[in-house]
Amino acid sequence: MRVPAGWTVVPAVARGDFVLDLVGGNEVSCRRRLRLVPAPSLKSSPDRRQQSSGAQSGSPPALALARACIDECVRGHEDCINFSTSSDPDLPTRVIDCANPARPRLFSTGRQRGRYLALSYVWGGDQVHKTTLANVSAYERGIDLSLLPATIRDAIHVTHALGSQYLWIDSLCIIQDSDEDKRKELAQMHYIYRRAHVTIIAANVGSVSESFLVDRPAAPPFGLRNAVLSGDVTLPFICPPREPAPLTPGGHRCEEEPQVGTVYVTTHPERVPPLPEEWPCSHDLGTLGTRAWCMQEYLMTPRALIFSARTLQFRCLSATQHVGNSLCGTSDEQRLPSTLLLEDPPAAAPGSAEWDDMHSVWRDVVGDYSRRAASVASDKLVACAAVMERFGRVLRSEYLAGLWRETLLADMMWVKEGRAYLQRPAVVGRPRAPSWSWAAVEGGIRWPVGKSKTFCDENALAHIVECEVELEDTALPFGRVTSWTLILRATLLLCVLRATGNFGDHDIRLRPLEHARRQQWEEGDCQGGDGHAAEVEPKLRGQAEVDCMADIEITRMWAVPLLPENHWLEGIVVAPADSNGFGWMTTLTGPLKALGTSDHDRAHNVPEYEAYKYYRGLSGFRGRGPKLVYRTSTDEFAEPGGPEAYSRIMRLRYVPDHHKLGQERLWDRIRADAVRHLDQRGIWFSSVDLVRFAWIKTKYPICGDEDDTDEDTADPVADEENPDCDEFLYRGSPYETVYTTPATIWIGVMPNTTTAEQAYHSSRDILDLLVQHNINNVEVAYRESEVTFSGGPGLFAPVDDFDPLKAIVDSLSTALSMPIARLGTDTQGELGFYFRVGEDLYAVTARHVLFENYEPNTEYNYVAGPKKEVVVMGPSAFTAHIAFLQDTIRDLDCVVRESSGEVDRVERALADPIKDGGPSRQVLEPKLLQRQGEFTRARRKLDAVTAHLADVQAKWRKVEDRVIGHVVWAPPIAAASPHQYMQDVCVIKLDKDKFHHFAGNALGLIGRESDIGKFIRMMRDSDFDGPREFKYSPDGLLNVDRDAPREFEYPPDGCLKLHGILTDDEMRTTATDQSIRRVIKRGPSTLITIGRLSVETAIHTDHADSLPFSMRGDSGAAIVDARGRFVALLTGGAGINDITYGTPSCEITYGTPMHWLWPRIEARFEGATLEVGDYDLL
């Protein structure tokens, strides 16, 4: 019975019935007659009042009502129905079989399917009766119910009463003294609770030894819970039936029997305090609400039956209700977005509103979790791993000891909740997590208002040079960590800590950077970033919250600005914990003053036009090229003038193998030393390459007595003193020459991280290094560049060049260049090559194509369990392929209609008498044959493509039908010693049923993007080849010595059969008649491209009219030479973050040499061979 606020219930007797007057103050405001029925007058037993759902949660009526709530959810809640799978899920490894509740047993499921319940409870200390290696066999025969603690006995009773057979309990279903079993089962926690039909939550007990099925007498009115007043009367009353009535198991509405509640009547209304508007009716998790492990169990389950101290509550994705209406109303509670509970939640686009919303929910969850305690200090991360794994699937960012790599700078700025200092628990004598993670402290944390910025844009004041964590167990990527490294390139501002007088609050005062102070920075004292710090207003003060005072040295503190926020800066304050680095952090907020640049800093700046146009032609939109930061070369570059002025076009050139740096692996050693110097200078570099550049220089004849001078001033380096500088006539023209620079160490730096002043000093280091090896004719240049990973029914057979489907089926054929993705993701890559082991067929691609960034970078070997399945074309690629087919059909339909009309017109002209002046029959008849041929070819191709589209839509639309295999081996991505080759490889075991039309290792040379003539021309010709590549004939025509052997013939079917591997020696040298080594690649993004091989498997784009050699989406492609030998496996590229044809482009493509990679695959797969044949696999 609900009573409004401020009212009390006063009894009055009238005609033998109770009349309840609602009294407010001293006035009787209203009178209502209620029939108060004594308990014995009900149809049921005298104890009916004690058996109501609100009084005894374990009674058959209460559990019957709970079962009705579950059935109503399963049949009538649309959100819950959409979440549920059409079939029963896989059972956990072990469950408790409750078919005989008096004799339960441990059941090893063998991964069979079925419904099961799960239990969430508090251990309250170690359990005596738990599954161990010694008793697991005995428990499988049966468990003595009397030996089990009360909470587990109650859970078995509830499971059986709800009509379920299986129950999952951690203490019994995980072998507690087996680290291997714990590791395996903890990795499945997010599946166990998410797939449970219902989770039983024992919220009203603080220990497993207590029973949660206890009598729950209705609570007295608010304020009288601990008082018994003289004259109080407690009487039952009949509760009204629920509207609508609950569903029966058959799906029909049923009439409920009257339910009995309790009404309190007192003769002392003056002693009753005002009542709240409604009974506090939100769920009460009791002790579970304070325990770390229990949070994920509560959040991850789609349905929960909560046994609390005041009510029995049912919660699902659609609603929360008190079973039997034992309490009135419900309140809002924390829930995970339903997206996270999907089997395979879709990824949110980084930086999108969906990503930011999910990241905000993650922060709320972490804030709630941080207030909970774990019995074992080292469990802080692992106890929430299941929830973090679900967030990781949507955010698709690497998890770093509690924070995300994509938003690390923003996420580091957490603060303590409240004024009390936090503790930093130690595990085995060291912190349990890095100081920059909230997991390092014990106590509530939050992200303050004003620090909600998530994605760190280019205006960030600090940059992450390195951030790595080492996991205790690589199978638990969201679990415990054992070591960590965080290196920031940032400005350090020396500051002092001064208490304001308020407990827990302190001010940070930044010291002014006077001349003496700057000198100390330059000499290495408090060195940070590039040795300089921002000029700071002398009395600038920033507010900071200090979370822990025990482990800092107040006299040595530095403020580190991280992000600008309007006119404020946001950052952290660090103090050295020991000699190894900074170990303590807090947050900082203060006014931001613009950073100044001195005249000295501007001395080496590159003019703006030169910065953006110097490398024009190399990459990017319309070939604009990367931004130049600094160069040591002395060639003049001026902005052109005049009405027809245009900037020169630059091309990349290979470094010849006879160059000193290309001999005896000298470049390996020079590059390693250059990297060390770059690190010492704090240069945030992305790549170090050895290249040459070339461009056309024009010299026009001048009339009159004027000197015949070169409008493009001659380069002082292009003289006899520099033997590596080339200049020769361009295509035999007397007015144009091709100028080629000396070898250049070309360093890519991350955008907006390196000044010309820094690059100048760094280049001095590298040039001095070269002098030590007696090398004086090499230049150094810096540009902004990022290195990126360029990441059913049977397949179709490849077709020849004259088949109408030649340009259509490549994406779904068994020839190499097949676009692939991991099931459930949209990251595109390509199958590189096939190999066989006995009768099994395998394929190789790059690891980063099939593994997400947030997954641990550890060796993967498939043994058993869920597979990492591989599909032909991810969702986006398949959608694009369907759109391509539809566009092709529309174009062909137009051609058919046009050619048909043309045939009709010619036929009519032939049927009519030939008019004077009109076309003769000799002209019309060949034209008719030509038009009929065009019509026939277009009609044939239209019919073929239309049938192919119908076939693809019918057989390939479901992504499950496009599964072609699963990953079996993937070593970690690493730079392998001694040559620092990129180890980025993944082996897929293929489903042979999808490869009936197997073509072996064959590369399709021609598709919808090219033709035979263009391909041959690109293989034989280049605008910027030097004198060793060209021979000039008397008639001025150009002949090219090329890598393609003289006897090379274009394959008749357009498929280049691949055999053999280009050796290390062959890669570093070329035959006398093959001074250029051209290589070929076919990828989903750039299709067929031709490049030239340079030092250390760096490939340069070779033609002005060609796409970049690779773009994102081409990872995993095989790079081969003109003889069909394997050269490398494409892994990534360096280029500007610009969009060319919809994809960031690369100036240089990197690959892992096949001569190094294949022996490692052979060592892992005994009997592996690349000679896989071209016959059908039966």
Automatic annotation (TrEMBL):
The cross-references to Pfam families, in alphabetical order and at most eight, read: HET
Where do the segments described as Disordered lie?
40-60
UniProt cross-references to InterPro entries, sorted A to Z: HET (IPR010730)
Q: Which domain of life is it from?
A: Eukaryota
Segments forming domain Heterokaryon incompatibility: 116-213
- Residue ranges with Low complexity bias: 51-60
Protein name from the UniProt record: Heterokaryon incompatibility domain-containing protein
**Species, as recorded:** Trametes pubescens (White-rot fungus)
